[in-house]
Amino acid sequence: MERMPSWIRLHLAALRALLVLTAVTGVIYPLAVTGVAQALFTGQANGSLVEKDGKVVGSALIGQSFEGHREYFQSRPSAAGDGYDMLSTAASNLGPEDVVDVLPVPGAKDDEGDPDEGRQSLLTQVCARSKAIGELEGVSGARPYCTSDGVGAVLKVFPAVGAPTRAVSVNQACPSRPFVAEYQGVRVECGRPGEDYAAGRTVPVRGNVSDVEVPADAVTASGSGLDPHISLAYAELQARRVAEERGVDVGRVRQLIGEHTTGRALGFMGEPAVNVLELNLALDKE
Amino acid sequence: MGWIFVASLVIALALVHKPLGDYIHRVYTTTKHNGVERFLYRLVGVQPDAEQKWGVYARGVLAFSVISLLALYGLQRLQDKLFLSLGFAPVPDHIAWNTAVSFVTNTNWQAYSGESTMGHLVQMSGLAVQNFVSAAVGMAVAIALVRGFARRGSDTLGNFWVDLVRGTIRVLLPLAFVGALVLVAGGLVQNFVGPHEITALTGGPQNLTGGPVASQEVIKELGTNGGGFYNTNSAHPFENATSWTNWFEIFLILLIPFALPRTFGKMVGQPRQGYAILAVMGIIALAGITLTNVFELGGDATVPQAVGAAMEGKDVRFGVANSATFAAATTLTSTGAVNSFHDSYTPIGGMMTLFNMMLGEVAPGGVGAGLYGMLVLAVITVFVAGLMVGRTPEYLGKKIGSREIKLASMYFLVTPILVLAGTAVAMGNEAGLAAMLNSGPHGFSEILYAFTSASNNNGSAFGGVTVNTPWYDVALGLCMLLGRFLPIIFVLALAGSLARQKPAPESAGTLPTHRPQFVGMVVGVTLILVALTFLPALALGPLAEGLLS
């Protein structure tokens, strides 16, 4: 030992320190926490599982997709895999000014040989969701910056600087009718798939929608991709449809919403939230 | 409600910073070793009472980090041969390198997706171990610098191995143990179950994942590490189940960084000097948190206006305000955990998270790293003030001579060089540009954010950027390594030269460094240095995006 060069001795000490600390913090500590947690908080430590007829149907903390099931309350949009996939949790990571779509070119193929799908901007995703939810719930799906056909109301104006000579509604593929006929005296064209409009100035058009009926959480993807909750407003919006589908009194549905709403912790933390899975389970038990 | 949330955090931290700071002071100043520690020192083969010069101390830090890096790389590459791998293949080499660097440097940049890459053994005995020890290394370096100020005519700075072991065993471990149980009570999972399929309510399949999450989550926040067990980090309900676990996690992030100024004050024998440093950190932190809240709640951008609130990338139980507070806390420290996705923030709200990191993460900064960063800024401030009045600058009785100010300046210059040069190189080559998810100024912000986050050892991301390519894994890995260890070497060298000095007696011409005037000056110097360095880059990214809309 003593004959070894000092740098080797130093690194051997480092290696031993790492091994010792790994034993303490990487083996003993997590096992001890697991032991105590399993003893004291069995339910939580194992994922707050919920059962129906004795079978596990999910976790109270993890959202599920109820798409296509009109008799259930719907969850928020999810960017995790194909939706609520715990093996690929994700947010959309699309920016706040992501407003210009890439229109699909009819007949074109993508790299994998499938029909070209283009790319929907975040704004168009929001508008399309709002329109679809509006139709599902029988209310208006209109929002600011959205066209009535459910895409982002965005113009590309040419030239980028100075008086406009050309304006294109880039998210509305021809032959649809642009959401405005004119922009500063210039006739607005529909968007031609495949044409590059990058050089133009981007002008989102707010429009004059004042009454938005579809709530914010209903048209946005969550951070976790697994959001188990919806806002009270979104639950309220869905109550009538769910009651009709199930043939139960809407008052009873509202009561169940109340029972599955978590308020702000201590009155000031977070936001009130309705647990969708638990609410739907409760409806099934009616 | 968002303001009460912030206020309650301030009150909680104000209540605990003193007892915790005093406790940490005792941990690092006592000469007694307890039985467990003596046993550990024997296993490691070091003399706990041997004092080390700065060079020896620094070599200890580097040797320990190199070994940690190799071990963590090896563990990831061999995970399929070991137990609890959940059947995952070895982590690809470039991702394993990036992850090893990232966890050893307290960055915890995630080039991987936890639930589909890392088995339980790698998470628990590889990644989580580095969460502990990289934080303990940060604290050790900070304490060594404080000893530099506190000691008189001394050649030595303490013993790295003792500081490492005590920081881990006496400070982090007990807090983590209690915190982990609190989090489990809130709903975080703590088991050894792998992904398994169940039948969801509508009849379709759903995969449920498990793992020793709570024990890792707590040290991820407490050690200002930030690497999530799962891909969506603290937004994932199994990592952050309720609105109150969210509060508790923010509290954990800020706990030690805000307690260390008290430790500093006690060690130099003048608690008021600690309060001055605490005041600087507190002022900048409150401003950062407030502005991030204001801009996010304002929702000033096209999509948030269309939506009605900046809810994209945020979970309902947290809401916009508490998400913004988390985002500010995680970027003001070197944590980088996220409970909402910064890429979808409003342009100026997102810029705040960038700006917070660009401050060098000193308010309050990472565990240990925040304190030594702030003390370097105090040294620079003293020097600037000395130039103004034409006196020899002194801080805590120690002369800030040419060697000291050179070291402090080099410390400060490391991260801007890495951030700006790294961003420039990425923007100038195909491999760098290919990674952008969004186009235009927002795409530039994504790249700038990546290099800012890596070089400052933060680890959060404008997640749209596709960084798990070999080019980014290597480039960001280098930024993390240099951004961590060059500053540490400069700090320890500075500590060594300060410790050798005998303090000059205070005179009428000494600049008092505990008064509001000095606090204001440090805040000013911090903001001006950062603004001068980074404003052009911010103008090309988030400012351009915010103004164009």
UniProtKB/TrEMBL annotation, chain A:
Main subcellular localisation: membrane
Gene Ontology molecular function: ATP binding; P-type potassium transmembrane transporter activity
Keywords, sorted A to Z: ATP-binding, Cell membrane, Ion transport, Membrane, Nucleotide-binding, Potassium, Potassium transport, Transmembrane, Transmembrane helix, Transport
Transmembrane segments: none
Topology of this chain in the membrane: Single-pass membrane protein
GO cellular component: plasma membrane
Cell membrane as UniProt keyword: yes
Intracellular or extracellular location(s): Cell membrane
Family: Belongs to the KdpC family.
PANTHER family: POTASSIUM-TRANSPORTING ATPASE C CHAIN, POTASSIUM-TRANSPORTING ATPASE KDPC SUBUNIT
Role this protein plays: Part of the high-affinity ATP-driven potassium transport (or Kdp) system, which catalyzes the hydrolysis of ATP coupled with the electrogenic transport of potassium into the cytoplasm. This subunit acts as a catalytic chaperone that increases the ATP-binding affinity of the ATP-hydrolyzing subunit KdpB by the formation of a transient KdpB/KdpC/ATP ternary complex.
Subunit structure of this chain's protein: The system is composed of three essential subunits: KdpA, KdpB and KdpC.
Name the UniProt record assigns to this protein: Potassium-transporting ATPase KdpC subunit
Taxonomic lineage of the native organism: Bacteria, Bacillati, Actinomycetota, Actinomycetes, Streptosporangiales
UniProtKB/TrEMBL annotation, chain B:
Keyword check for Transport: yes
Keyword Transmembrane helix among record annotations: yes
Compartment(s): Cell membrane
Keywords: Cell membrane, Ion transport, Membrane, Potassium, Potassium transport, Transmembrane, Transmembrane helix, Transport
Gene Ontology cellular component terms for the protein in this record: plasma membrane
Pfam families for the chain: KdpA
GO MF annotations in UniProt: P-type potassium transmembrane transporter activity; potassium ion binding
Record membrane topology: Multi-pass membrane protein
Transmembrane annotation, as ranges: 56-75, 132-150, 171-193, 244-263, 275-295, 369-389, 410-428, 474-498, 518-539
Recorded family membership: Belongs to the KdpA family.
Protein purpose: Part of the high-affinity ATP-driven potassium transport (or Kdp) system, which catalyzes the hydrolysis of ATP coupled with the electrogenic transport of potassium into the cytoplasm. This subunit binds the extracellular potassium ions and delivers the ions to the membrane domain of KdpB through an intramembrane tunnel.
NCBIfam families found in the cross-reference section: kdpA
Subunit structure: The system is composed of three essential subunits: KdpA, KdpB and KdpC.
Protein name: Potassium-transporting ATPase potassium-binding subunit
